[in-house]
């Protein structure tokens, strides 16, 4: 059953194949001498996006949770290699922009991506050595209360910040984390409901994936869309055991990641026959 709210089976099959092909091609390419050395760090960095993006594309298609591609440790390997290349480029070429965005948590795009990686690392329960490498790459200890507190569930010695770097939308999630247990479900849903809208920034400042699937800006025909999944909410639920019952089935909440043995938390949006069968039998098609 397709989990994403957009895209048919053919769309998702093509997207998964293309993501695999892109990763294979990139991994072969980085083994060769760089044709444009000054851009090599950014090219390698692309793999840190490609690996998790493939996994989320599979999730959107409806693949079994146990069969999802584990993006670790390759995403960590790629990030470390990109950093080494960036250091070389800075010494040899000193370009103004080694990579596409600032590697600082006070930049929303980088914060969001690091949050996703932390959430997926918790879901996949990566080994301690991989976690330590990921934590070192993310850095920013003591800068953001929410991310620090989530990471301390795997790394108790991480300093915890006293401020929130990006109040929209993350103040809602921090409020849910801090709430009494009987209020957490409602507040977590409030965060998920507002998450996508409150991530919106002016054109030129938006997160790289934000407009994927937008019919006017980046329509489905371009093939960039891989779902819009609030991995941050899953990270908080996994870390603190929040009640996510009100979020199940939400178009942005990837609740199946926390329920690998099923049944799916997403509703079947493809056809009245499937909905009728569920009503009559209580089973998903």
Account of the protein in words:
The chain is mainly α and 285 residues long. Helices cover 52% and strands 0% of the residues. The protein has helices spanning 9-29, 40-61, 74-92, 108-124, 128-138, 145-151, 167-178, 181-198, 231-240, 272-281. Helix 2 runs antiparallel to helix 3 (74-92). The termini are close together. Residues 271-280 have low confidence and may be disordered.
How confident overall, as mean pLDDT?
A: 92
Segments where pLDDT lies below 50 for 5+ residues?
271-280
Estimate the global geometry from the Cα principal axes: globular
What is the helix/strand order? HHHHHHHHHH
Say how many strands there are: 0
Helix content: 40-55%
SS strand fraction:
under 5%
| Main β-sheet description | none
Distance between the termini: 7 Å
Kindly name the structural category.
mainly alpha
The radius of gyration computed from the alpha-carbon positions, rounded to a whole number of angstroms, is 19 Å
Summed up, the helix count is 10
Task: Please outline what is shown here.
The chain is mainly alpha-helical. It has helices at residues 9-29, 40-61, 74-92, 108-124, 128-138, 145-151, 167-178, 181-198, 231-240, 272-281.
Q: Notable features of this structure?
A:
mainly alpha, globular, 285 residues
Topology:
Layout: H1 9-29, H2 40-61, H3 74-92, H4 108-124, H5 128-138, H6 145-151, H7 167-178, H8 181-198, H9 231-240, H10 272-281
């Amino acid at each position: 059953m397709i989990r994403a709210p957009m895209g048919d089976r053919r769309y998702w099959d093509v997207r998964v194949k293309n993501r695999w092909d892109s990763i294979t091609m990139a991994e072969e390419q980085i083994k060769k001498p760089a044709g444009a050395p000054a851009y090599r760090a950014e090219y390698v960095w692309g793999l840190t996006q490609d690996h998790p993006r493939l996994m989320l594309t599979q999730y959107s298609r409806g693949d079994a949770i146990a069969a999802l591609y584990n993006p670790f440790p390759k995403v960590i390997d790629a990030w470390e290699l990109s950093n080494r290349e960036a250091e070389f480029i800075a010494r040899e070429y000193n370009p103004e922009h080694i990579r596409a965005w600032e590697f600082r948590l006070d930049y929303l795009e980088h914060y969001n991506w690091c949050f996703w990686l932390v959430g997926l690392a918790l879901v996949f329960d990566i080994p301690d050595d991989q976690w330590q490498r990921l934590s070192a790459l993310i850095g920013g200890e003591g800068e953001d209360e929410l991310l620090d507190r989530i990471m301390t569930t795997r790394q108790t010695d991480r300093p915890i910040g006293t401020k929130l770097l990006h109040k929209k939308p993350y103040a809602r999630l921090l409020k849910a984390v801090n709430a009494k247990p009987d209020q957490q479900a409602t507040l977590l849903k409030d965060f998920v409901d507002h998450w996508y809208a409150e991530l919106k920034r002016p054109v030129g400042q938006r997160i790289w994936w934000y407009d994927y699937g937008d019919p006017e800006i980046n329509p489905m025909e371009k093939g960039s869309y891989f779902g819009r999944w609030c991995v941050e909410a899953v990270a908080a639920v996994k870390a603190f055991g929040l009640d996510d019952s009100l979020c199940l089935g939400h178009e942005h909440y990837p609740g199946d990641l926390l329920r690998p043995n099923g049944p799916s938390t997403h509703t079947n949006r493809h056809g009245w026959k499937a909905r009728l069968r569920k009503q009559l039998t209580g089973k998903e098609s």
